[in-house]
Amino acid sequence: MIDLSLFEQISFGILMLCSALCLFRIGRGPTAPDRTVAIDILGTLVVGFCCLMAIITEQDYYMNIAIAWALISFVGTLALAKYLEGRRYDA
Amino acid sequence: MLELVFYVVIGVGLAFDLFGCIGLVRLPDVYNRAQAATKCVTLGTCMILIGVAGLALVGGNWPMAAKAIICSAFVLLTSPVAAHAVCRGAYLSGVSLWDGSVEDAFVQRAEQVRREEHEEGSVEGEEAQTA
Q1: Has residue A91 been placed in a domain?
Q2: Chain B residues touching A81 at Cβ < 8 A
Q3: Number of domains in chain A
Q4: Sign of the alpha-carbon dihedral angle for A55, A57, A58, A59
Q5: Which residues of B touch A64 (CB under 8 A)?
Q6: Which of B15, B14, B8 is nearest to B54 (CA)?
Q7: Which of A41, A75, A78 to mutate to probe the B interface, most B CBs <10 Å?
């Protein structure tokens, strides 16, 4: 069990609340673009989560995870957007 | 004292994240949700990353600071592009605007795009038939 200071507890709590709101929109969202936007936002939140973990545990590799997650999330969202637009992936 | 400044930057970034996600839940249609959530969460995450970079630099861990700055540049470049692409896809796939919207500036351009794609599709279909 890692000892967390008050600041760290509050910051993780806020990020958890944000993720819960995103998950609510992913589950509820009436159309597919709603869910895609919420998934994109969730990916950006995970980047913030990873860099807070990096500063708390003082491990560098969380920062690598954050960079990789930002790029992979971008590519995935672009693929979903192209699918929504009704185009083929090779065009 | 310098650490306190960076903690404040992280706190402001967290507040922006929270407001963006509240906007994601509260606003009425896809385009409103996308613009509120994307702008707020992009700025919030960039501020968290800059605060983390400053804290790492104060602690003497400069590789982590450099990675945080690079990551903030990635987020700042990629997140608005992704949201723009999703909104364009949503409009072209026929998701209608909220009833209270006052202006639709994309309507003519969207028709043009649809016509071009239709022509391309018909040309490709003819090629497939001749082949």
Answers
A1: no
A2: 82, 85-86, 88-89
A3: 1
A4: negative
A5: 67
A6: B8
A7: A41
pLDDT, position A84: 84
Q: What's the whole-number mean pLDDT along residues B56-83?
A: 92
Q: Which long-range contacts (CB under 8 A, 24 or more apart) does A26-30 make?
A: none
Question: What is the chain A residue with the closest CA to B62?
Answer: A60
Closest by Cβ to B68, choosing from A33, A51, A82? A51
Which ipTM was obtained for this model? 0.87
Considering only CB atoms, A25 lies closest to which of B25, B55, B83, namely B25
Q: Are B22 and A18 in contact (CB under 8 A)?
A: no
- B68 by Cβ neighbours in 10 Å (0-12 / 13-18 / 19+) ranks as buried
Domain range spanning residue A70? 6-84
pLDDT band per the 50, 70, 90 thresholds, residue A87? low
- Residues of chain B in contact with residue A54, where contact means CB-CB under 8 angstroms, are 52, 56, 64, 68
Q: Examine the pLDDT at B115 and tell me if it is beyond 90.
A: no
> Which two tokens mark A53?
């973990």
Residue A89 lies in a domain: no
| CA A59 – CA A57 distance, rounded (Å) | 5
pLDDT tens digits, residue range B33-52?
A: 999 999 999 999 999 999 99
What residue in A sits closest to B40 (Cα-Cα)?
A41
* % of chain B exceeding 70 in pLDDT: 92
Mean pLDDT of A42-54: 92
